[in-house]
Write a structure and sequence with these properties.
- The strands form 2 sheets. Strands 1-9-8-6-5-4-3-2 form an 8-stranded parallel beta sheet. Strands 7-11-10 form a 3-stranded antiparallel beta sheet, with no helix packed on it.
- It is built from 14 helices and 11 strands.
- The protein starts with a helix and ends with a helix.
- It has a single domain, classed as Aldolase class I (TIM Barrel), CATH 3.20.20.
- Helix content is 43%, strand content 15%.
């Protein structure tokens, strides 16, 4: 993995980024991944400004390696989050769910490396035009909020690679070294991994949710609520309530009312497996245990290298 554009960009050992997931990616997970040679990200989407400040400060104490913050641009107090990031000297920011032009120039003026998360070639090109340093292209296999077009990672990565000059990070359905190698063969310079790191002791998610991820089988997740913001969910009571609402011809306003407030926190952070929103990727079907983040990363790298040698033999 020497001379890799992602390891050089972030000054890390392996081109593996831990996704900045809501209710999962706190300082314990981010620092553990960074200490193991990847890039850990704090998920600011579920943090009030004062909470983000606390996590940044704790992360700085827990690791002397690079780490970053993922900031969804739909966040209401985004200006406060960005000011904290600048004040605390965080030098890597991943932005998502919005126009990359809004913050990229401001952050780069402060010497911050900026990466934007996209779900299509069109938005990848817009991010490149906005001046970002790299792009995460996320296929619809991914958990959480997602693209409406349902473009798979297998198709999205080579399509973006054809058009993009800057470094490309693949995301969506990646939890193993084999999948990492496949993504890089398709044209990615590195990978972003979310769901696999949810099933780790360091993730701040509730143990009930982690156990459901481990139990998940093929077909247990579904991309829904496209009228609001597309989200991939485990099929629980809340999910089935949503599907019943569709059957009944629910309007967008009725779906908003059904969703209510803090569904994601209720499910993933508080462990309500019936009424909570349980966001996870399709790759949960390949996750069979809860293990330390460092072990996850080490096993991915080892499998990547073993598979690369085996392919070379072929």
């Amino acid at each position: 993995m020497q001379n890799n554009r992602i390891t050089k960009l972030f000054n890390i050992q392996y081109p593996i980024v831990q996704a900045g997931m809501v209710w999962a990616s706190g300082w314990r997970l981010a620092s553990a991944v960074s200490n193991a040679g990847g890039l850990g990200l704090l998920g600011a989407g579920s943090m009030y400004p004062e909470v983000l400040l606390e996590h940044i400060q704790k992360c700085k104490k827990a690791t002397d390696k690079p780490f970053g913050v993922n900031v969804p641009m739909l966040y209401p107090d985004i200006d406060k989050l960005m000011q904290i990031i600048v004040d605390e000297g965080v030098n890597i920011v991943f932005t998502s769910a919005g126009n990359p032009k809004t913050w990229t120039a401001h952050l780069k003026e402060k010497g911050i490396t900026v990466v934007h998360v996209v779900s299509s070639v069109k938005f990848a090109l817009k991010a490149q035009e906005a001046g970002v340093d790299a792009v995460v292209a996320e296929g619809f296999e991914a958990g959480g909020h997602n693209g409406r077009d349902e473009t798979t990672t297998l198709v999205l990565i080579p399509a973006v690679r054809e058009q993009l000059d800057i470094p490309l990070i693949a995301a969506g359905g990646i939890a193993t070294g084999r999948q990492m190698l496949a993504a890089m063969v398709l044209g990615a310079d590195g990978v972003q991994v979310g769901s696999r790191f949810v099933a780790s002791p360091e993730a701040s998610s509730h143990i009930n949710f982690k156990n459901e991820v481990v139990k998940a089988k093929e077909g247990d997740t579904h991309l829904t609520l496209k009228e609001l913001a597309p989200v991939r969910l485990l099929k629980n009571k809340f999910y089935h309530d949503v599907q019943q609402a569709y059957t009944n011809g629910a309007s967008k306003e009725e779906l908003v009312q059904l969703l209510g407030r803090a569904r994601a926190k209720r499910g993933m952070f508080e462990g309500d497996l019936d009424e909570g929103e349980l966001e996870i990727g399709q790759v949960s079907a390949l996750i069979h245990d809860i293990k330390p983040a460092a072990q996850i990363l080490e096993e991915m790298v080892a499998e990547f290298e073993e598979t690369k040698k085996a392919v070379n033999i072929l």
